Amino acid sequence: MKILNQTQIKWVDQQTVIDQRISSFELMERAVHELYNCIHQFEWFDPLAPIYLFAGSGNNGGDGIGLARLLGDEGVEVKVFLCDYGTPSEDNLKMRRNLPQRKYLTQHSVETEDDFPEFEKGGIIIDALFGSGINRPIEGIWKQLIDYINADPTCKIVSIDIPSGLHPDKYVDDWPTIQADYTLTIGQPKFTFFFPDLEDVVGEWKVIDIQHSKKALEQCDTLNWYIDKTFVRENIPMRRQKFSHKGTFGHALLINGSYGKMGAAILAARACLRSGVGLLTCHVPRIGYPIMQTSVPESMISVDQHEFYFHTQLDVTKYDAIGIGSGIDHGNGVCEALLHVIENASAPLVLDADALNIIARHPDWLEKLPNSTILTPHPGEFKRLFGSWGNDTEKLNRQVELSQKYGLIIVLKGANTSISTPEGSLYFNSTGNPGMATAGSGDTLTGIITALCAQKIEPHLAAILGVFIHGLAGDMAVENRSTISLISSDITAQLGKAFRDVYSM
Question: pTM for the whole thing?
Answer without folding.
Answer: 0.94
